[in-house]
Amino acid sequence: xxxxxxxxxxxxxxxxxxxxxxxxxxxxxxxxxxxxxxxxxxxxxxxxxxxxxxxxxxxxxxxxxxxxxxxxxxxxxxxxxxxxxxxxxxxxxxxxxxxxxxxxxxxxxxxxxxxxxxxxxxxxxxxxxxxxxxxxxxxxxxxxxxxxxxxxxxxxxxxxxxxxxxxxxxxxxxxxxxxxxxxxxxxxxxxxxxxxxxxxxxxxxxxxxxxxxxxxxxxxx
Length: 221
Hints:
This protein is of the alpha/beta class. 43% of the residues lie in helices and 13% in strands. It is built from nine helices and six strands, in the order βαααααβαβαβαββα. Strands 3-2-1-4-5-6 form a six-stranded parallel beta sheet, sandwiched between helices. Helix 1 crosses helix 4 (64-85) and helix 3 packs across helix 4. The longest helix is centred in the middle third of the chain and has 22 residues, at 64-85. The chain starts with 5 loop residues before the first strand and ends with a helix.
């Protein structure tokens, strides 16, 4: 039975959810204690990494204890934004909910996420948007940071799906490099935080409407 299954893994921020505004605001707020304000583009360039790694890249000169404080302040700011704005703090991109429903209706498709978000953040986003379709949920709390392949490898192990029957869909180099390291096919979306044509993905889509036909073509054999 597992030989018939296909695993479709999604990144979250920048792929399914338009969290740009919240991420930038909260990261800049987190650095205020040290009288710093990272540029928007610099912040977006590290989205997808686990939070400690992201902060380390934004402020390599800060002492590790200070970076830990920034991490804590970011988590607190993001939590407040989520409580205040609800689902509006990270709205889904146009077509995301519809394509998830469409793909979830295909009997041999299994859907999952592989994200640099924390478990708490991922669970809250899934609850806010009532996304009950994911059978495997990999997040930063339980894995090395992307682009390490751990998240994809664990998702395949949990579902019993082989690499040739798995795709990783994301918007950053971290997503695509992670998928490539795990030996799976990669799909870049062109509405996220990194330029899609620079990621070296196997495929690029410019609309969620393109995803189902692409998957059918990939797995037509």
